[in-house]
Predict the structure.
Amino acid sequence: METSSFPIGKHRRGMTLVELLVVVAVVVLLVALLLPAVQSAREAARRTSCMNNLRNMGCALHGHLLATRTFPYGCLEWKVGKGGTNRCLAWSGFILPWLEESVAAGRLRFDRPYDHADNVPAGSMAISVFRCPSADRSGELVDGLGRTDYGGIAGERIASGPLAGPLVHEKRFRESEIPDGISKTLFVGECSSGAWSDGQWINGRNLFEQAFAVNSTVVYDARRGIWIDDELRSRHPSGALALAGDGADHFLSESLSLNVLAALCTRAGAEAVGGLSSPP
């Protein structure tokens, strides 16, 4: 007769409630320890992608410079609002051929306003190089046009006044017309936090004049009588990324001196500039 190999009357002992709670507590603790590291790794990857976007734009700006001997217009035929005959075409549209965006470049009608029906086929294209993966905006389009999370630097409102930057309305600059030096002049910066109705790569209003600190949450400065507008701000912790005219990307800390920040946003201020940090 076959007999069971297990002792009769004995049973396997299960986990008690206390033991189960201990296991759960250990798992929760491990998740709590690992989650910040995972989030940090993800943000590092997003920041690297953002840096690559800016470097590609830097190469494209220099492609334009080599082909035309000037950097592009910041905005050609500025206008407020929509409609009318002014084209209001953006710097980012002029560099498309050097971003390997030949389809968008071929569709873009430079003889039409950015919001003309003839420019919908080009303007509605979503171009990945103009989008920061850390941006807190959803969707690839803004009011039916391709989104951008990067703006051209038209100047600053901290010290010297408006339109002192390298990408301005109705003007194209030769390298020799930027006496501060292109390596010490910011051309493009992130504007990837919060709503931005002008954040369309074809729209010539995707320019800004810096008035506050990087990533500032101030809405109004009563002393200067200045409201916040499009500014250098991002969802990267502790700062934002920007592109200098020599094609180098830089991480601008939230603690960067306002005087230094103002100097970086001008093309001919003759300031002594320091404090730039290049990401690894």
